[in-house]
Write a structure and sequence with these properties.
The structure is a single chain. The protein is of the alpha+beta class. The chain has one domain: Heat Shock Protein 90 (2-Layer Sandwich). The chain is 34% helix and 27% strand. It is built from four helices and five strands. A five-stranded antiparallel β-sheet has the order 1-2-3-5-4, covered by helices on one side. Strand 4 and strand 5 form a beta hairpin. It is globular.
C-alpha cells in the first residue's frame, strides 16, 4: 500500500486526488467511480482539517491500494487527531426542511452513499477512516 502525507491544515484535496489517480492510472477506472472517489476524498479531508484538532505539522497520511478480483480501490485516511468515529452518528435527515437547519453530517452521508464500504477504527493513537470503491 503506497502512502502520501499532506499538511493537516490544507483542505485542498487535489494532491490526494492526483495521488489516487496515479495509483489507478494502469486500470480502466469508470469515470463515475472516479468522480465518487474524488467527492469522498474532498469531504473526508475537509472534515479532518476542520474537526480533528491537528496542528499543521501533524500531517494526514493517505494510503491507497488497488486490489484485484474484483477490481477495487482501498483508501485510508490516518490522523492523530481527537478520536472521532464519523460513522457512529445517525445519518442526518435529508428532508427539505431539515436541510435548511442542517448541523452537518451531510458530507459523511455522501461518502457512505458513494462508496461500497466505509469503516472507522481508532488504534495506536490514530483515527483511520477506510473507504472502498469497486471499479468493475
Amino acid at each position: 500500500m503506497r502512502s502520501l502525507t499532506v499538511p493537516a491544515n490544507d483542505e485542498d484535496p487535489e494532491p490526494i486526488v492526483e495521488f489516487v489517480k496515479q495509483e489507478l492510472s494502469q486500470y480502466d477506472c469508470p469515470p463515475k467511480a472516479l468522480y465518487h472517489i474524488e467527492v469522498a476524498i474532498e469531504e473526508i479531508i475537509v472534515n479532518i482539517v476542520n474537526y480533528a484538532g491537528l496542528l499543521p505539522e501533524d500531517g494526514v497520511e493517505v494510503r491507497c491500494e488497488v486490489l484485484d478480483d474484483p477490481l477495487r480501490v482501498v483508501i485510508q485516511f490516518l490522523d492523530r487527531g481527537v478520536p472521532f468515529d464519523p460513522l457512529a452518528r445517525e445519518d442526518p435527515d435529508t428532508s427539505a426542511e431539515a436541510l435548511m437547519e442542517s448541523e452537518g453530517g451531510l458530507g459523511i452521508l455522501m461518502v457512505k452513499k458513494m462508496m461500497d464500504d466505509v469503516s472507522y477504527a481508532y488504534e495506536s493513537g490514530k483515527n483511520t477512516l477506510t473507504i472502498l470503491k469497486r471499479l468493475t
